[in-house]
Design brief:
The protein has 297 residues and is an alpha+beta fold. It has one domain. Helix content is 38%, strand content 12%. The protein is built from 11 helices and 7 strands. The chain has a 7-stranded antiparallel β-sheet. Helix 2 packs across helix 9 and helix 4 runs parallel beside helix 11. The chain is globular, with a radius of gyration of 19 Å. The N and C termini lie far apart (46 Å).
Length: 297
């Protein structure tokens, strides 16, 4: 069977030469080094190279054939459609961070590297700090500091081990600058035993355009007859006892965003202590007085 046809809702070209001046592009730079033309986010371009898209499509086709052999073809096709139309990027944060983020529209959501570099937080213990930089460097190189991490979710829920406040982002805010990885980046590097000089395995990254192929290929082996969205949501975002046992499709967002990027907020629970509960009540009060999307104008 022919591979599915993807609808181009965004345009993440992966040019070898700058469309503006014709000079060779530096793959890890967003802007042309000659004329400063915007080439698109480097993580998206990397995920949308022909060898990557062909690799993901190949895995998808194999999974589709497997679903037919196992008698779950209808579930597989319905899952792919759900991923295409009903998944969004979600980030998990602590109540105090979410409260601060919502109270100040000028505040930008930053990743670990930017926060440490800017003196807004202390580094993790040396063992974990070095692991963070090693994994991020392997996947992104010098622009790792520009990546913010989230995951793909059907129901707006994230992994509780990363925070009990789950912030769903507006598609329009991130779809041109987000790429996806088969699983948590640390577990991915460990699973494939990637060394500094090891090439990244092909077919495990994608852009917004072919997210349904990546996810359907990953989840096919877990599908059972009669399963639906509730079960697929648990398969896509599976909370483990520890972070090492969590399962997800990781989202990599290039660049920061502010509170206007929020579409919805879910909560894992009401908090673990009095401060958590107070922060969550304030979050609900602030967010409840805002429009669900597109705020502020």
């Amino acid at each position: 069977m022919n591979p599915i046809t993807l609808t181009r809702s965004v345009s993440p070209p992966s040019p070898e030469r700058c469309p503006n001046c014709g000079e060779e592009c530096v793959e890890s730079l967003r802007h042309c080094a000659v004329c400063s033309f915007d080439l698109g986010c480097p993580n998206v371009r990397a995920a949308h190279r022909p060898k990557e898209t062909e690799g993901v499509s190949g895995r998808f086709r194999a999974a589709r054939e497997s679903s037919k052999a196992r008698g779950v073809s209808a579930e597989f096709e319905a899952l792919a459609e759900t991923i295409e139309n009903e998944t969004h990027v979600v980030v998990a944060v602590s109540p105090i961070l979410a409260r601060s983020f919502l109270q100040d529209s000028k505040q930008l959501y930053q990743g670990y590297e930017k926060l440490v570099e800017g003196g807004s937080r202390t580094p993790a213990p040396q063992e974990f700090d070095s692991q963070r930089y090693a994994v991020a460097g392997k996947l992104f190189g010098h622009y790792a500091e520009d990546i913010r991490y989230g995951l793909l979710s059907i129901n707006g829920r994230s992994l509780k081990n990363y925070g009990i406040v789950h912030i769903q982002l507006r598609d329009i805010a991130i779809k041109d600058r987000v790429s996806f990885l088969h699983e948590n980046s640390y577990l991915f590097v460990r699973e494939f035993d990637l060394k500094p000089d090891s090439p990244l395995p092909v077919g495990y990254r994608c852009s917004w355009l072919n997210k349904k192929e990546l996810v359907a290929a990953k989840l096919e082996s877990s599908l059972v007859p009669g399963s639906g969205k509730e079960e697929w949501a648990r398969l896509l975002v599976n909370n483990g006892e520890t972070r090492d046992r969590d399962q997800c499709v990781e989202a990599h967002i290039y660049g920061p965003f502010n509170s206007a990027a929020i579409e919805n907020i879910e909560y894992e629970n009401n908090g673990f202590n009095r401060q958590d509960r107070l922060d969550i009540e304030i979050i609900k009060d602030i967010f409840g007085h805002k429009k669900v999307s597109g705020w502020p104008s």
